Amino acid sequence: MSHGRDIGEAIVRPRLSIPGRIGLILLALFGLLPVYWLTATAFMKKEAVFALDRPLFPVDPTLENFIGFFQNDLLLQNLKNSFIVSTGTAVLAVLVGAFMAYSLSKFRYSGRNAIMFMFLIGQLIPGALLLISLYLMLSSVNLLYTYTALIISFTTFTLPLVVFLLKGIIDGLPDDILEAAKVDGLSRVSTMFQIVFPLIVPGLITAAMFAFMRGWSDLLFALTLAGPDNQTLPAGLTQAFIRDGTADWPALMAASLITSLPLCIIFILLQRYFVSGLASGAVKG
Amino acid sequence: MIALPAVLLFLVIAIYPLISSIGTSLYDQSLLRPDRTFVGFDNYTAIFGEFMARLGTTLTFATLATIFPVLLGVALAVLLNARIRGRNILRGTLMLPWLLPGVVVSFLWAWIFNDSYGVLNHLLTMVGLPEVSMLGNPTGAMAAVVIAKTWHSFPWIMVVALSVLQTLPAEQLEAATIDGATRSQRFRYISLPHIVGPVALVATLEFIYNFGNFDTIFVMTGGGPGDSTTTLAVSLYQLAFGSYELGKASAMGVLWLILLAIISSAYLLLNRRLEKR
User: Fold this and answer.
1) Domains of chain B by range and CATH?
2) What H or E segment, with its residue span, contains residue B28?
3) With helix as H, strand as E and coil as C, how does B103-163 read?
4) How would you class A23 by CB atoms within 10 Å of its CB: exposed for 0-12, middle for 13-18, buried for 19 or more?
5) For chain B, which terminal residue's Cβ has fewer other Cβ atoms within 10 angstroms, N or C?
6) Which chain B residues touch A241 with a CB distance below 8 Å?
7) Which residues, numbered 160 to 199 in chain A, qualify as contacts with chain B under a Cβ-Cβ cut-off of 8 Å?
8) Do B219 and A24 touch (CB under 8 A)?
9) Which residues of B touch A207 (CB under 8 A)?
10) B176 CA: distance to closest CA in chain A (Å)
11) Contact flag A275-B160 (C-beta cutoff 8 Å)
12) CA-to-CA separations, A272 to A19, A162, A267, B158, in angstroms, rounded
């Protein structure tokens, strides 16, 4: 087929040539084979993984690695901590962030641009840079090694994304509704709770889930600010991994799958919002 | 007033620590003892050589771990923009690596690269190639963390590039076709310029994030072997929570902060210029 005959949709989305297909297959394999290996190992018996004739797929699949996870009190505690900290982050980030977004979206005041600038720059600060001061600060107010320490830290670093995401949505709310609320004598806070929040529920859920993911995935702060009892899964697993070396790979892969599962579920629920949401927070500001 | 909680949180948790680390950097302070003594710029002179060495490693890692995901992500976006069966399913499943927490990605690649039982060496042996010790030597370790990070972040670049490609006006491509442009010319002169801006922006962000990456390197190599993969983030963590040298670690942080300010200004300039277009 000559190129001259490409029309309409076919020009924007051409067919793939043979080298193109081969390229796509190779790149897709690079992307997907490790995921396969993660899953496959998690279902393998420990003996099989360390045997001389190691199989490349779970010949004799087992759930023992997952069962082991749920019989391990320390890991269960880590899992519980992860849920508490991530949920706390999601709730606090959305509450604080929504007010901020509302203010940036519907009010004009001096310092508004400076605040937006601060939030934009803020998301570029690497966690490691704040670590020492944050540690000393939390220690001096007796918050070190608490859930609160983790939740407020995670919340702060999720705020830029949450604020820019929600600001984009609140920008789209017609001013008339808010004017009407004002005429009816509602205070700003009641307007938020009674008018704005109910109108942007999908946005709030999206923002909450992004915040949840932030708390769920973090390693650095959990490692330093959580202490032994409040450690989340990534920190707990890392310490066990470094302490025990490479003792039990199938168990570690099973634990990794369990750690990843909530994020995958959130992604499936949020697919639609993903690109636009992240783009509004991370790229455009 | 309703903006206050967010601004306060940000000032207290993000901005204040940045400034207060300047103070800490001027003291001989350790986690092991409560008191501290003023030492002026001694910490800076003590760690400057180390800082420069770690900076080199960090730049190597951040550059490589940005270039490869960008190339891979853009290539996949272009290929996935074509008419192929199962396109949406493929695009969805290729997002998986990006969803996994950094720690999981690091465990996974450490397992793949494991000298004795890793699947990489298993496959190499099967096809008659010699085994490699990825995490056991400096070059291999750097390659390993770059590969892991590439795998973790290519989906994000891919999705951005793909969504930009899909906003390309069909008329423009059609007009070019009527004027006799070949497929590769259309790509070179229309599609590529169209995606360059947004991709450059995401690449800059990716570079800044990689510059501060902690998870991948800390988990996979712990900065080793030797100090071949010790980046600034890992070094700062080790100084502060391994050797408890808070003053020296803060001095390293302050030097890093100055650098970051320069890089961020570049990002903001780029952002502004692209928004004007």
Assistant:
1) 58-229 (1.10.3720.10)
2) strand B27-29
3) HHHHHHHHHHCCCCCCHHHHHHHHCCCCCCCCCCCHHHHHHHHHHHHHHHHHHHHHHHHHH
4) middle
5) C
6) 107, 219
7) 163, 188-189, 192
8) no
9) none
10) 10
11) yes
12) 31, 17, 9, 16
Cα B143 from Cα A168, distance rounded (Å): 40
Is B258 an interface residue toward A (CB < 8 Å)?
A: no
Instruction: Set out the domains of chain A in order of their start, with CATH numbers.
Output: 18-61 (no CATH), 64-283 (1.10.3720.10)
* Six-digit token string for B168: 């390309």
Size of interface A-B (CB pairs under 8 A): 277
| In chain B, residues 186-225 whose CB comes closer than 8 Å to chain A | 186, 198, 201-202, 205, 208-209, 211-212, 214-215, 218-219, 222
Nearest-by-Cβ selection for B103 from A24, A163, A238: A238
Q: Closest Cα partner for A154 from A208, A80, A100?
A: A208
Q: Could you tell me if A100 lies within 8 Å of chain B, comparing CB atoms?
A: yes
pTM: 0.90
So what's the pLDDT on residue A177?
A: 83
The C-alpha atoms of residue A212 and residue A221 are separated, in whole angstroms, by 15
CA distance B88 to B243: 50
Query: What pLDDT is stored for residue B267 in this prediction?
Result: 72
- Judged by CB atoms closer than 8 Å, whether chains meet at B99 and A263 is answered as yes
d(CA A165, CA A138): 29
Q: Give the residues of chain A that fall short of pLDDT 70.
A: 1-12, 246, 274-285
Per-residue model confidence as pLDDT tens for chain B (277 residues): 677 888 888 888 888 888 888 988 888 888 877 788 888 888 899 889 999 999 999 999 999 999 999 999 999 998 998 888 888 888 889 999 999 999 999 999 999 999 888 999 999 998 999 989 999 999 999 999 999 999 999 999 999 898 888 888 878 888 888 888 787 888 888 888 888 988 988 898 899 899 999 999 999 999 889 999 999 999 999 999 998 989 999 999 999 999 888 877 877 787 777 776 6
Instruction: Give A11 to chain B, closest Cα distance, Å.
Output: 7
Contact B180, B126 (CB under 8 A): no
Distances (CA, A) of A119 to A240, B10, B254: 35, 8, 20
Q: How far is Cα B128 from Cα B125, in angstroms, rounded to an integer?
A: 5
Q: Which of A117, A120, A133, A214 would you mutate first to test chain B, the one with the most B CBs within 10 A? A: A133
Half-sphere exposure for A147 (CA within 13 Å, toward CB): 14
The set of residues, in sequence order, having a beta carbon less than 8 Å from that of A227 and lying 6+ positions away, is: A144, A145, A146
